[in-house]
Amino acid sequence: MSELTKGLEGIVATQTKVSSIVDDQLTYAGYEIDDLTENASFEEVIFLLWHFRLPTAGELQNLKDQLFDNMVLNPRMYSHFEDYATDQIHPMTGLRTSLSYLAHFDPRAEEFNEAAHLNKAIRIQAKVASLVAAFARVRQGKEVVKPKKDLSYAANFLYMLFGEEPTPLQEEGFNKALILHADHELNASTFTARVAVSTLSDMYSGVTAAAGALKGPLHGGANEQVMKMLTEIGTLDKTDEYIQKKIDNKEKIMGFGHRVYKNGDPRAKYLKEMSRKITDETGQKELFEISVRIAEILKEKKGLLPNVDFYSATVYHSMNIEHDLFTPIFAVSRVSGWIAHILEQYADNRIIRPRAEYVGDVHRKYVPVSER
Ligand SMILES: CC(=O)SCCNC(=O)CCNC(=O)[C@H](O)C(C)(C)COP(=O)(O)OP(=O)(O)OC[C@H]1O[C@@H](n2cnc3c(N)ncnc32)[C@H](O)[C@@H]1OP(=O)(O)O
Ligand SMILES: O=C([O-])CC(=O)C(=O)O
């Protein structure tokens, strides 16, 4: 058996054409993330990830139409949330359930061929936005808002969440955030999705499993924890003491560090600039100043740099998005990548089944319960 590498660090577990990280550069199907973030729509990126090429105008319109047509939810998808104390259910818990529950309403859920996979892909990508928005509104006792024709995916999500159309600037910023979070090679949730479907289980199983993995604070759940930390710090003058205490206690600081990037996350610069702008515009400059100060301290004292989750927190906060929706929003974007990897796994599958090194007791003999 090969040697154990804790956390599978550095282990190449699959080949992929979906995205790559080489020399701290992130590309989606060969396109640099900077190029896409500055020029593309999230819908184009979805198509790119699923088909490894950019869509023609006709293909793009077709995808937009299909996404819109599938965004409306069967009311039973969210009415059941009224039965629970929704304020005690984390929206990622709600989303994990909802992704699984979606299969109950898909007549082709058990069909296993390329056309059925693409049909599920569209349904899941379209409905994930509506699900997160519906959960947020149901728990506030508000009416669920139906999507609006001819809005972009980014604008429609914000429209369904807030009940009003975003400004062009908000839409542009949110579109960029969706692109930046869409895929990231073999991160924990994507690996989870691939493992789940490598048994030839269906796409709903894959995205449900992946959502469970994304929820954890070492992965997608970090963005919510960043905002918790910023709230606890409160003012710029308390930042140094707060962070020093965490360092002394050997606590992890959320939004920093990365398994692959050791010279910085290329997505963070966009989110930092967005954070600078939007905190300024909304009169919350100090939140940005605290963030920058945390980054300075961690760079100096621990050599740690911000990851994608750090500045996204203040961006979403400044857009008036509730903090526990940050990770579900990450999922709204990342579903596109999970699906791309699931399709790729189906296309050239072998069950993912590594080995474990046994380190427990050996040569034990059963003792009857009366003698123990
Ligand atoms: C979308 C995403 O998933 S991005 C990541 C989001 N997660 C976070 O922001 C949570 C905070 N960060 C972390 O926990 C880690 O950096 C991870 C999970 C991202 C990567 O983990 P790993 O690759 O296993 O790195 P590991 O945890 O071994 O860190 C290496 C060293 O840096 C330290 N370190 C890494 N990240 C941090 C951090 N955020 N705060 C403090 N110390 C840290 C570790 O304590 C460790 O130090 P040691 O060698 O003295 O024990
Ligand atoms: O790649 C990782 O380990 C985590 C990450 O940044 C992501 O999933 O976007």
From TrEMBL:
Active site: 258, 309
Gene3D superfamilies: Citrate Synthase, domain 1 (1.10.580.10), Cytochrome P450-Terp, domain 2 (1.10.230.10)
GO cellular component, one term: cytosol
Keyword Transferase: yes
Keywords: Transferase, Tricarboxylic acid cycle
SUPFAM superfamilies, sorted: Citrate synthase
GO molecular function annotation: citrate synthase activity
Cross-referenced InterPro entries: 2-MeCitrate/Citrate_synth_II (IPR011278), Citrate_synth-like_lrg_a-sub (IPR016142), Citrate_synth-like_sm_a-sub (IPR016143), Citrate_synthase (IPR002020), Citrate_synthase_AS (IPR019810), Citrate_synthase_bac-typ (IPR024176), Citrate_synthase_sf (IPR036969)
GO biological process, one term: carbohydrate metabolic process
Pathways involved: Carbohydrate metabolism; tricarboxylic acid cycle; isocitrate from oxaloacetate: step 1/2
Residue ranges that the Swiss-Prot or TrEMBL entry lists as coiled coil: none
Highest taxon listed in the record's lineage: Bacteria
Catalytic activity: oxaloacetate + acetyl-CoA + H2O = citrate + CoA + H(+)
Family the UniProt entry places it in: Belongs to the citrate synthase family.
Name of the molecule in the record: Citrate synthase
The species this protein was found in: Macrococcus equipercicus
